[in-house]
Amino acid sequence: MREAYRKRILVTGGAGFLGSHLCERLLAQGHDVLCVDNFYTGTKDNIAHLLDSPNFELMRHDVTFPLYVEVDEIYNLACPASPIHYQHDPVQTTKTSVHGAINMLGLAKRVHARIFQASTSEVYGDAHVHPQQEAYWGNVNPIGPRSCYDEGKRCAETLFMDYRRQHGLSIKIARIFNTYGPRMHPSDGRVVSNFVMQALSGEPITVYGEGTQTRSFCYVDDMIDAFIRLMNTPEEVIGPVNLGNPHELSMLDIARRIIELTGSSSEIVFKPLPMDDPWHRQPDVSMAREVLGWMPTTALDEGLTRTVRHFRAVTEAMQARSAQCRQAMA
Ligand code: NAD
Ligand code: UDP
Ligand code: UDP
Questions:
Q1: Closest-lying ligand to the alpha carbon of 120?
Q2: What is d(CA 29, CA 79) in angstroms, rounded to the nearest whole number?
Q3: Which residue among 110, 115, 159, 171 has the greatest number of ligand 2 atoms within 8 angstroms of its CB, and so is best to mutate?
Q4: Domain residue spans in the chain?
Q5: Which of 103, 126, 169, 174 has the smallest number of CB atoms closer than 10 Å to its CB?
Q6: Residue 115 has what DSSP assignment?
Q7: 146, burial (CB in 10 Å: exposed 0-12, middle 13-18, buried 19+)
Q8: Ordered per-residue pLDDT tens for the chain, 330 residues
Q9: Which CATH number fits the domain 8-180+218-246+279-297, given the four candidates 2.170.150.70, 2.40.110.10, 3.40.50.720, 3.40.710.10?
């Protein structure tokens, strides 16, 4: 018989940045983890260290197609998250958010599993309210280049709420603000991975616009802690709950921090601001503090130092591989 505390947990998007950290944490807690991913932006490298665990199972599957498995809980993270990735095939992005949500909700309904949705601060769009509270309905362009992601995630939230109202599902919705850390894709174009990779290779740091736009960055370990706390809240807590670090800073500030922490000689260059780039973003995390007893604890410099260490190792491994290839071809 299975121990009472040990659950079978499905993580969609489990080979991605956040998903791989979540799988790792759930395994460490003694659960059985089924990681489902189509490797659109995630990689096997992210979960290679988990493959030998008898409690870990990896399934290549696209969540826009139905999935029949038996699980107790579902964390639905499958969706490209960086603007470059989600704008590469915007129709697929919307399908992943919307059809993926329908399939995972249908699965949750059939097996009576609790289901968690990785929503996003992008549901607030270019917010007129600052900091953003959950009660704010947002200012989202429905027809722009970011809409496939923003509107897809908004529709997924609607589906989650309606499956609860209509079918009584047990749901949890997290609105995740910018999160960074080891295993971000080195070329996903997100600001932290871009700046760190540029700083490490001595290339110019590309600040978009004047660099006065702001974001608030949460370290991955803090975010995973919040995911698990939210999943384990009493039935009546459904969210949406903002999850993020309220420490807000400008893109110029973060560029300067990364240059200092890496000791890089990179110069800062200015590039055009992408269309619909939100101007300010800072989560109001009062609800998370109240219902989860959670606040992020990793200071920016500490999180960036760990991230830089990770990207250094990735860069060195890439250089070693290309040196081997050159040798083999010589
Ligand atoms: P990521 O791109 O590293 O991970 C997404 C994973 O989903 C990848 O492994 C990818 O291969 C997989 N995937 C994509 N489409 C799929 C499909 N159709 N079927 C199966 N798998 C699919 O991104 P991440 O940063 O780890 O984000 C994870 C989740 O958190 C996403 O839903 C994202 O929208 C949300 N989120 C992340 C952030 C952040 O700052 N990292 C902020 C807000 C929301
Ligand atoms: N679904 C799934 N796995 C399951 C059960 C359902 O992928 O274990 C999919 C199914 O293909 C369906 C979707 O989830 O398209 C929604 O299911 P629901 O039962 O809500 O609706 P219906 O089957 O009536 O369309
Ligand atoms: N950004 C930047 N230089 C880069 C990449 C991003 O100045 O090389 C800016 C981008 O315009 C945005 C902020 O950094 O204002 C955060 O971008 P990211 O793509 O990481 O996330 P999002 O816009 O989804 O919050």
A1: 1
A2: 25
A3: 110
A4: 8-180+218-246+279-297
A5: 126
A6: E
A7: buried
A8: 455 579 999 999 999 999 999 999 999 999 999 999 999 999 999 999 999 999 999 999 999 999 999 999 999 999 999 999 999 999 999 999 999 999 999 999 999 999 999 999 999 999 999 999 999 999 999 999 999 999 999 999 999 999 999 999 999 999 999 999 999 998 889 999 999 999 999 999 999 999 999 999 999 999 999 999 999 999 999 999 999 999 999 999 999 999 999 999 999 999 999 988 889 999 999 999 999 999 999 999 999 999 999 999 988 888 888 888 888 887
A9: 3.40.50.720
With a CB cutoff of 8 Å and minimum separation 6, the contacts of 319 are: none
CA distance linking residue 305 with residue 182, whole number of Å = 10
Q: Whose CA is nearest to atom 9 of ligand 2?
A: 103
**Crossing angle for the helix pair 300-329 and 251-262, nearest 10 degrees?**
60
**Active-site residue 149, yes or no?**
yes
Q: Which of 12, 61, 109 to mutate to test the pocket of ligand 2 (most atoms within 8 A of CB)?
A: 109
